[in-house]
Amino acid sequence: MTLEHWRRLLPGLWLGWLLCVAIVATPAPFALLERAEAGRVVARMLAVEAHSALLIGALLLGLERVMAKRRFDAVEGASQFSLGMALAAGALFCTVAGYFGLQPMMAAARTGQGSFSFGQLHAASAAFYGLKVVLVAALAWRAAGAGRSG
Questions:
Q1: What secondary structure, in 3-state letters, does the chain show?
Q2: Mean of pLDDT values over 116-128
Q3: Contact in structure between 88 and 31 (CB atoms under 8 Å)
Q4: How far apart are the C-alpha atoms of 71 and 62, rounded to whole Å?
Q5: What is the pLDDT of residues 22-67, one digit of tens each?
Q6: pTM of the predicted model as reported, rounded to 2 decimal places
Q7: Measured between alpha carbons, how far is 138 from 120 in angstroms, rounded to an integer?
């Protein structure tokens, strides 16, 4: 497969993974297990998702960078930065802030430490996840060919 094929395939796979985690994988344990046990299962799934998002996001950012560089070399005045790079970087930011930034604060909030409640931090984390889904959906839409300008 060429780099262009991977650049087109990965966003759709990533979006599917994000939606599967959000719609199927995280609600299921709460339907079947006690709340504390379900929380541990979901925390593990979200950890796997966050680490895979770092890998996939970095790969996509690199692929978008290569494609932008090729456009720059082929067309005088073309930008070395692309909308695809911005979307991939935004999704990476959402992962870092929403999981790696807030997760330690959520653990502290469970023990009564920190200035934010667990619920507030959970809402912020969910908002970052939702924004990541939107950014990856836009990246997948563009990669499918619906928005080739940029």
A1: CCHHHHHHHHHHHHHHHHHHHHHHHCHHHHHHCCHHHHHHHHHHHHHHHHHHHHHHHHHHHHHHHHHHHHHHHHCCCCCCCCHHHHHHHHHHHHHHHHHHHCHHHHHHHHCCCCCCCHHHHHHHHHHHHHHHHHHHHHHHHHHCCCCCCC
A2: 96
A3: no
A4: 14
A5: 999 999 999 999 999 999 999 999 999 999 999 999 999 999 888 8
A6: 0.89
A7: 27
Check: CB of residue 14 under 8 Å from CB of residue 60: yes
Burial of residue 119 (number of CB atoms within 10 Å: 0-12, 13-18, 19+) = exposed
Tokens matching residue 76? 């005088």
- Tokens 């950014």 correspond to 135
Banded pLDDT at 147 (limits 50, 70, 90): very low
Could you tell me the two tokens for 41? Answer: 């299962």
